[in-house]
Amino acid sequence: MSVKMLKQIKSESVTTFLLRYWWKIATVLLLTYTCTYGFLIKTPNLPILNDSIRNLFFHVPMWFVMMFLMFISLVYSIRYLMDGKGRHDIIAENTAIIGLLMGFVGVVTGSVWAKVTWGAWWVFAEVKLNAAAAALLVYCAYFILRASFDDPEMKAKFSAVYSIFAFVMFIVLINVIPRISTSSLHPGGGGNPGFNAYDLDNNLRTVFYPAVLGWMGLGLWMSTLLCRLKFIENKLDDIA
Q: What are the residues whose beta carbons fall under 8 Å from the beta carbon of 22, sequence distance 6 or more?
């Protein structure tokens, strides 16, 4: 085999690798950028928030990731109801698992931010915090429902139907109720200006948007790994 042919094979393998894993490579690069430059950029000189505003790159994207993954879970739940393929139920379940995990991370990072800016880990009068907690409980109920069935087909059907209800409730709790509330401490709620109105300057935008994409990529990556593990487990069960 000539040197030219070896170079061609090597070039094709690299191209194939990039085409197959481009989004994973992009995820690593985006999160590396977020976790380094996010702590180096100059932030707006705002009272109370100060440097805690850097949490914007970690707290807020978690809710975008959760919405993204729960939407995928919804789509595959509907697909399962349409065709009854177990593969679709597996994808719906595992994207919901990672979505719920990201939601819990969002609550934890939000609680840390609340302690710095509001002086308390949790403000029970804050509508958005309570709505976020309720949204997580709605999806916790999804997994409780799944665990209550022994028959795989019944589990998948009832879970798929509940997933539709859960997503609607999630959007209402996260996006609708906080917006119509008049007593919210959060930016953009209760008459408070939103981040895009008073402190999401161009420096923050250069990190915030890549952070959202990077965390979304990580959430999707984690979901695909869980799905692949479940597919392998099912194949091993079939062989046994």
A: none
